[in-house]
Design goal:
The structure is a single chain. The chain contains 22 helices and 9 strands. It has helices spanning 13-17, 35-51, 111-128, 157-163, 180-195, 201-214, 225-237, 244-255, 262-297, 305-316, 320-341, 352-359, 367-377, 380-400, 404-419, 433-444, 450-463, 493-496, 501-508, 527-536, 540-546, 553-571, and strands at residues 6-12, 22-24, 91-100, 105-109, 215-222, 348-350, 468-470, 479-482, 514-517.
């Protein structure tokens, strides 16, 4: 007999949103997803979008013409068969539990995801400049103009800053009633806009359609409110998530089951695996496993990378080969991974480790796989120069191509070529004139996204230290300081004289107005007070700023030009005429 109290079905996000209007159940928390979770979800969706062949914009990724002579011993990696990676064009994004209230559907589970998707759709609507007839609008409001999602907030951030047409494209103004949830919603807007930067309308439209129809959730509707509340407690308090390393370890040991010495082989694998885990720690081991996966598969990674890695191992390393992979080769990978991080705590990272310290500032980590191979296969006399080229190329890519899937695809091709024995010029990367122009434009313009601003400023300041990079630049206690602050209050009237809000917001986020401070946060203090503090810090850019007698928009613009020029000189890129 069908259960009329609890009913479940698989729906696309678009179908879910079109069911009606939604409100958080009373037991729900406010919006609490951080930038890390927002970006992680969007990166997975963009990766799936490209993997399914739905992306209409294929950026040519030039490789050197002609056949280059091998420059180091090749690594015996198996060939990849892209057909084996083909899947249906859907991505599962979780579960939602609903209860039909008097007017709205109450959300008992899935509020964070549904809110984040709503922000994504609002950003896409504004980037597309969609008119009222565009399908994306039906995901944000019903035919009567009532918003699909409503949140109870002190400041009406969702409606005022996000759902109102065109609002996500405008500057976010300070407001006295902003809560932590409000700031996280605004951060979600910035995260999405940063990911979609430089996307053409055709690509935005295709991704919007994929997001609406290709992202699938399991929707459970519960007619009894008390049972819905029990479901909320059960979902959010029970069980432990299965970690990627646990998925891989279990299946590696299972590979030995058909071998005549299965018990001994399983013990060897388990000893190596546990030893690496103890050596690297939980966070380090996850980074290590991701790097190993990228070396082996050379493909953009989604949240299921560990399962894909095991499928790859099963197909390409049968029998005793799998045991050797899980012991001998894995230990070689471990040694190369540890080398990358061996001077992380040094007060000064010098030589090749200065380049590695800068690389670790980047928010995409496929460079680590390339660096591991450089250590494993380069001649000692070539290693430092190669890592230096990789460092410069990866930063230039970070600024000129802010698309995680594109970056992973490009890096995968270079890792493939290097594993076959060829390094090439500039670590195998060719930079086009269009990339160079984007690089200059993005360095000389405002950097509005917080994580991107932090990455760029820390790397640029580290570059100005050359081959001796101090630890304060990567220290978690340090921060990127705005000289002219976000909340200037009454301390900066001379600086602001004659400039509109948007002009001030632009100047505030330019590189010339930014520096890395080791620990202290000086906030809204006037410039005279700040410059005295800057002189006491062991910070290159802060010390330079301390030498200025005054601070003005023209000072910021001039300093931005000089930092941009110095960065381009340090990068020293070869730009293709094509």
């Amino acid at each position: 007999m069908p259960n009329q109290v609890i009913r479940s079905q698989a729906l696309s996000i678009g179908e879910l949103l079109r069911l009606g209007s939604f409100r958080p159940a009373r037991v729900q928390r406010e919006y609490c997803w951080t930038e890390h979770q927002q970006a992680g979800l969007l990166e997975d969706l963009i990766s799936a979008f490209g993997e399914f062949g739905l992306d209409p914009e294929i950026e040519t990724d030039a490789l050197p013409e002609g056949r280059e002579l091998p420059s180091h011993p090749a690594l015996d990696l198996p060939d990849l068969n892209p057909d084996l990676e083909v899947t249906e064009p859907y991505v599962f994004v979780g579960t939602v539990v609903l209860h039909q209230g008097d007017v709205h559907l109450d959300i008992y589970d899935g509020l964070q995801r549904l809110t984040t998707f709503t922000v994504f759709f609002a950003v896409l609507r504004d980037l597309l400049e969609a008119d009222r007839k565009h399908p994306v609008n039906s995901l944000l409001a019903d035919d009567a103009g009532i918003w699909r999602l409503g949140l109870s907030m002190k400041h009406n951030t969702l409606e005022a800053d996000i759902l109102a047409p065109g609002r996500t494209a405008k500057r976010q103004r300070p407001h006295p009633q902003l809560t932590e949830a409000s700031h996280r919603l605004r951060t979600c807007v910035n995260t999405a806009r940063a990911m979609f930067k430089n996307w053409k309308p055709e690509r935005l439209a295709a991704f919007t359609a994929f997001l609406a129809e290709g992202a699938i959730v399991t929707v459970t509707r519960i007619s009894d409110r008390r049972i819905a509340a029990k479901a909320f407690v059960s979902i959010n308090s029970g069980g432990l998530p299965l970690k990627p390393e646990e998925i891989v370890k279990g299946q590696l040991i299972d590979l030995t089951s058909a071998l005549p010495d299965a018990d001994d082989a399983a013990k060897r694998i388990l000893n190596v695996w546990n030893g690496i885990q103890d050596d690297l720690g939980p966070e380090g081991f996850d980074d290590f496993l991701r790097s190993v996966d990228f070396i082996e598969r050379r493909m953009p990674q989604s949240s299921d990378y560990s399962i894909q890695l095991m499928e790859h191992i099963r197909r390409n390393y049968p029998g005793q080969q799998g045991v050797r992979w899980a012991t001998d080769l894995l230990l070689q990978y471990r040694s190369a991974f540890k080398w990358i991080h061996e001077e992380n705590n040094a007060e000064i990272a010098d030589g090749v480790h200065a380049s590695l310290r800068r690389l670790q500032l980047l928010k995409w980590d496929q460079w680590r796989a390339y660096a591991m191979l450089l250590k494993m296969r380069s001649r000692p006399g070539d290693l430092a120069a190669r890592v230096d080229q990789l460092d410069r190329a990866c930063f230039a890519l970070t600024v000129s191509t802010p698309d995680p899937r594109r970056l992973a695809e490009m890096m995968g091709k270079r890792v493939e070529r290097f594993a076959r024995g060829t390094f090439g010029r500039q670590a195998g990367f060719i930079f086009t004139q269009a990339q160079q122009e984007r690089l200059i434009r993005n360095l000389s313009g405002p950097i509005t996204e917080s994580p991107r601003r932090s990455t760029i400023m820390r790397w640029v300041e580290a570059a100005m230290h050359g081959d001796r990079v101090p630890r304060y630049i990567v220290d978690g206690r340090s921060s990127v300081e705005h000289v002219y602050p976000r909340n200037p209050e009454e301390n900066w009237t001379a600086f602001e004289n004659g400039l509109e809000f948007n002009e001030l917001a632009t100047v505030r986020e330019m590189m010339g107005n930014l520096c890395v401070l080791p620990q202290d946060e000086l906030g809204n203090a006037p410039f005279d007070e700040k410059r005295k503090a800057y002189a006491r810090f062991r910070s290159r850019f802060a010390n330079e700023i301390a030498k200025y007698k005054g601070w003005s928009p023209d000072t910021v613009r001039d300093r931005t030009r000089r930092i941009t020029d110095a960065t381009l000189k340090f990068l020293n890129l070869e730009v293709s005429a094509n």
